[in-house]
Amino acid sequence: MNGGVAVTGMGIISSVGDTVEENLQAILAGKNGLSRIANFPTRLQEHIWVGEIKRSNEELSDTIGLSLPHSFTRTTLLGAYAARQALEVAHMEDVNDLRTGLISSTSVGGMDYTERYGPTYLTSPEWHRYISAHPAGDSSHKIAHYLGIKGMVTTVSTACSSAANAIMTGARLIRSGRLDRVIVGGTDALSKFTINGFHSLMILSDALCKPFDKHRKGLNLGEGAAYLVLESEDAAKQQGKNVLAYLTGYGNANDAFHQTASSENGEGAFLAMQKALATAQLTSQNIDYVNAHGTATPNNDLSEGRAMQRIFKDNMPLFSSTKPFTGHTLAAAGAIEAVYSILALQQGIVPPNLHFDTPMEELDLIPQTALQHQSLSHVLSNSFGFGGNCSSLIFSKA
Amino acid sequence: MKRSVFINGIGAVTTQGVWRQEIFSEAQVLDHAITSANQPAYKGVISPVAIRRMSSGIKMGIYAARQALEEAVMSMPDAIVTGTGLGCSEDSDKFLRSLWENDEQFLTPTSFIQSTHNTVAAQIALQLQCKGYNVTYVNGAISFESALLDTLLLLQSGEAKNVLLGGVDEIAQQTYAFLQAGGYIKAADTCETVKTSASPGVNYAEGAHFFSIGRDKTASSYAQVVDVALKNELEVPETASFLQGFLATNDLPSSAIDAVILGYNGDKQDDLFYAAIQHMLPSAVPLYYKHLSGQFDSCSAFGLMVAAFVLKQQTVPPILHWNEKNPSKTTWKNILIYSQYKGKDHSLVFVSAC
């Protein structure tokens, strides 16, 4: 196994909690964060379940101490909220004392405000300040500015694998020696655009999602943000930092099969996991737990299941999807699940795959359905997205 | 870890037509607020069904990628890395409009499916059946340079031997109308160039630029990319330390820079940054390109195309000169490209002859 990149901070906000501790408590209690949409009106309100954070934009803005008026979209507010926590945990009083970067990710960016105020832009200047808040990169700029970072700031957008790729890019920048420290993760707010998009694809479940279940009917969307602070092992040591976990492996591959569907045999997922094991210099036997992508769409779970069976063969480690807790938080999912993977290592727990009932017929795969206490050394986390983008990360115990 | 990488093939769809030897000598200076790319015939490159379904960004991207790979005689890159500021906004616009017009009813998924930022890179991977590394960066004016930096990481670390690198941004009617209403794009009836710009805003356009970049020099190599640096925000005076730091890292005395490619776009505030960098490099010949490419987030890729052309041909097409400063130079070895937008997303790229 290689040394890896040190994780010295993490922060999260999701529908199950505003802090790392609250998220941990929800996992321990098996309490999901799914509900009906309340933050904005939509025709889909009674038809879908979502992992919505029950805090208004005004509350979020107040909590992080912004002065009005500003043009922080919900995506940006959630991102700034979670990233600030990560910095506090990492004791980063001076963000610029080392070469520090921010690699963020988002898929909706400022779409939530564009869909709200767009119809007025051509007739009234009242909401024009949100025009420049639309592009994905604007959220990263505002988060960096809020944190006081002056350095390398960029954004990844590869649909639902975005945050995993942002984490991977950050780790590679540290390994290359270009950065000493980097804040990595992702943020996405619920919007009419995304819920209707997924609805039009007919992959939203009208019930609570059941990943890897024979009777799974689709996914539940969610919103949230999570960030990690990554530091080179040397930088972490020199500062006497408390290391939460090491990021030891990462792999990115493309399924090259279809714009939205995953291939039958999960080729992209297989390649991503294989590459992650290779970078970590581990074998599949070393993995103690897999935090699966597990969206609960018929297509994803079968394809991911096949890919896992190809990687692990007869030695399938414990695995679960934590999406029944948070909903699928799209570009934030890889970061939220990175936090859950690190919590699993720190606490020695395997989070349960809620709502699982009947095994799939096609595969001999049964997820962990009850919380399990067990010492873990290496956790693999999967994130796959539209466009065939597949990424896997491996976190190892500090 | 420092190791140059080589530009082995170029492809582009721009307002000046597709990438070709004569692109600069035949170029026309843009003077409209919004100029569409001069699109090629996609027949034979993309299936007729797909031509109808795909947005201009996807089509331009597929065409430019193919051109770059063909020029480099590269059938299968190890990785595809792209940058785009606004992604597939034509499809985003379409889905958003039907959301508004039909009050969340009767929506079809096609435009939603194609609206994700990574669609172009995904479609290229699909066409090539390229299962390698695939990432899309979306960060304003450094969207392309972020992808370029990732390309350097992939090649310098040995993770890849050949990378298909690209930048794409498309005109989408509604998105551009909003940018116009917000004052970013000049008013529809203006007729000004970068040089004659007097009204607020900038001339916008669209385009796709792709590069086949490899660890090894080949018969088709244009130039080598030595390094790239990114910075999120700077005040004009702070550009000095950004530049000095980059030159120091690369052991590059400012006197050794033959040309500096600047992103002058006719916006008075924006141009202050370029003037500052130009002033700090008195011996470098200043060149510009946005009068030909137009402004869009990934337009700085046009600047890289300029650098590659000059270094390979060892000549500067007259239309690229920013001023009358007559260069006595006959050889061009080191070129610096500087780009930013509204004080944000600063990048420096160092390109050298090979």
Automatic annotation (TrEMBL), chain A:
It comes from the Bacteria. It comes from Sphingobacterium phlebotomi. Belongs to the thiolase-like superfamily. Beta-ketoacyl-ACP synthases family. PANTHER family: BETA-KETOACYL SYNTHASE, POLYKETIDE SYNTHASE-RELATED. Pfam families: ketoacyl-synt, Ketoacyl-synt_C. InterPro entries: Beta-ketoacyl_synthase (IPR000794), Ketoacyl_synth_AS (IPR018201), Ketoacyl_synth_C (IPR014031), Ketoacyl_synth_N (IPR014030), PKS_Beta-ketoAc_synthase_dom (IPR020841), Thiolase-like (IPR016039). GO terms for cellular component: cytosol. This is Beta-ketoacyl-[acyl-carrier-protein] synthase family protein. Residues 2-397 form the Ketosynthase family 3 (KS3) domain. PROSITE patterns: KS3_1, KS3_2. One of its GO terms (molecular function) is 3-oxoacyl-[acyl-carrier-protein] synthase activity. One of its GO terms (biological process) is fatty acid biosynthetic process. Keywords: Transferase.
